[in-house]
Amino acid sequence: MAEGVDGEERRKSPLHGIENSIPVAVKELVAGGVAGGFAKTAVAPLERVKILFQTRRAEFRTAGLFGSFQKIAKTEGLMGFYRGNGASVARIVPYAALHYMAYEEYRRWIILAFPNIGRGPVLDLVSGSIAGGTAVIFTYPLDLVRTKLAFQVVETPKLRAQGLSQPGIIYRGIFDCISKIFKQHGVRGLYRGVGPSLYGIFPYSGLKFYFYEEMKSHVPEKHKKDIIVKLACGSVAGLIGQTMTYPLDVIRRQMQVEALSASEHGLTKGTYESFVSIVQNQGWRQLFSGLSINYLKVVPSVAIGFTVYDVMKSWLKVPSREEVAAQVVREETSGQLSSLHSG
């Protein structure tokens, strides 16, 4: 009885009409954006140290994890752990929004085009892979900016207030960085390193969705909405996917900061040339530099991302994938029947 009263009150609420008027795709965009921003900020300090390791910043080559944290805290203060995070969040919010929404849309389109296709994890693998590529293409310049800002190491705000020179500062912020890159290298400069990003995101994104949905499918129905279960499934999915594609992430980072290194005035290298150069000059172990930190980062990041996304979809009253897919098929069938009758 109480449930009926609650349902009646919810129907009378002005928010109920607003919820129903918002398209499902928009709700998925919002849910994905919130999930991405929340997860990225939670692991920003680890992301900063990982980038410094990957790009072989001289001061951090032998510092180790705790030594790197101490060095950043001493030279840059608390905000040093979030250097580049503004660009990171500015990128991850639209990236995650596009990623999750495109995944859901591609999944529905595939089901609509091939009604008899299985609804298993393979569908999630294909949908997730294409969605990842779509999101990268639209948001890559912000990822490049994030890396360049995180690569810079500056002194404390006190020295900056005294007007002392800061040779380590090349870019003063997101817009300054984009402007300078565009003036020097044009649009191609804003997509420096996009090759390995796309090579890596297709398998990583697909595998991440694949393993997440595969593991959830084995969870008893009564536990599928448990936060701990979602966190566990997301953690394992991120761990497996990231391990298999990590070397491409290292290549991408080094290509992104190449213009800030000693090779600034030399010829830029492509993905394969960068791979060969890293192996020959830095050793194959460099392809996995920062991987241990990445484990510390990616496990909570993916787990939090998936969990917040699912919670946001529930809060925004997003119907289940099966319900949306069935509705799309019904609308398509109804449209075809209307055309036949009118003909």
TrEMBL record:
<keyword id="KW-1133">Transmembrane helix</keyword>
<dbReference type="InterPro" id="IPR002067">
    <property type="entry name" value="MCP"/>
</dbReference>
<keyword id="KW-0472">Membrane</keyword>
<keyword id="KW-0496">Mitochondrion</keyword>
<dbReference type="GO" id="GO:1990559">
    <property type="term" value="P:mitochondrial coenzyme A transmembrane transport"/>
</dbReference>
<feature type="repeat" description="Solcar">
    <location>
        <begin position="119"/>
        <end position="218"/>
    </location>
</feature>
<feature type="repeat" description="Solcar">
    <location>
        <begin position="23"/>
        <end position="109"/>
    </location>
</feature>
<dbReference type="Pfam" id="PF00153">
    <property type="entry name" value="Mito_carr"/>
</dbReference>
<keyword id="KW-0813">Transport</keyword>
<keyword id="KW-0999">Mitochondrion inner membrane</keyword>
<comment type="function">
    <text>Required for the accumulation of coenzyme A in the mitochondrial matrix.</text>
</comment>
<dbReference type="InterPro" id="IPR023395">
    <property type="entry name" value="MCP_dom_sf"/>
</dbReference>
<keyword id="KW-0677">Repeat</keyword>
<dbReference type="GO" id="GO:0005743">
    <property type="term" value="C:mitochondrial inner membrane"/>
</dbReference>
<comment type="similarity">
    <text>Belongs to the mitochondrial carrier (TC 2.A.29) family.</text>
</comment>
<dbReference type="InterPro" id="IPR018108">
    <property type="entry name" value="MCP_transmembrane"/>
</dbReference>
<dbReference type="GO" id="GO:0015228">
    <property type="term" value="F:coenzyme A transmembrane transporter activity"/>
</dbReference>
<protein>
    <submittedName>
        <fullName>Mitochondrial carrier protein CoAc2</fullName>
    </submittedName>
</protein>
<keyword id="KW-0812">Transmembrane</keyword>
<feature type="repeat" description="Solcar">
    <location>
        <begin position="225"/>
        <end position="315"/>
    </location>
</feature>
